[in-house]
Prior knowledge:
- 39% of the residues lie in helices and 25% in strands.
- The protein has five helices and nine strands, in the order E-H-H-E-H-H-E-E-E-E-E-E-H-E.
- Helix 3 packs antiparallel against helix 4 (75-102).
Amino acid sequence: xxxxxxxxxxxxxxxxxxxxxxxxxxxxxxxxxxxxxxxxxxxxxxxxxxxxxxxxxxxxxxxxxxxxxxxxxxxxxxxxxxxxxxxxxxxxxxxxxxxxxxxxxxxxxxxxxxxxxxxxxxxxxxxxxxxxxxxxxxxxxxxxxxxxxxxxxxxxxxxxxxxxxxxxxxxxxxxxxxxxxxxxxxxxxxxxxxxxxxxx
Length: 200
């Protein structure tokens, strides 16, 4: 999360007060291009290829995996089952690499005091929702809201409460932020917008 300001390089007082004089705040939102997705896409790809080659070797009776002997598998039912798992793994890997390539969920939150508006932008799946963009006046923002729910499926999310709209999510989808970072981000945004911070 970064605040962009216009200051003179030699003006120490302006640097000290940059939070109060900043005119825009830009937050980059991490989407599908995070390490965990790269990791799982790679693991699933390797597993899917291995299972598929094992099933194909069982059918062709040609060893396509140098470090194993899949030709010893009986094609019905073992080879068919392994081949099916391989195809399923490859399809899942294709989906994971696709979301990474498209950066689904990635985008930014921009708050501009000079223009008097904010813009929430996210990349979606191909189609009419490929570009998801919400714009509204800053004066419509009533509060910044934190929602923290612990348990087996924890939720740690930051929302904008906007007049006449549903709560607008600001945080990334999938991997929850730490509570400390969520609170710091919420406090910084509420301070910048001069609105209450709810949910603490």
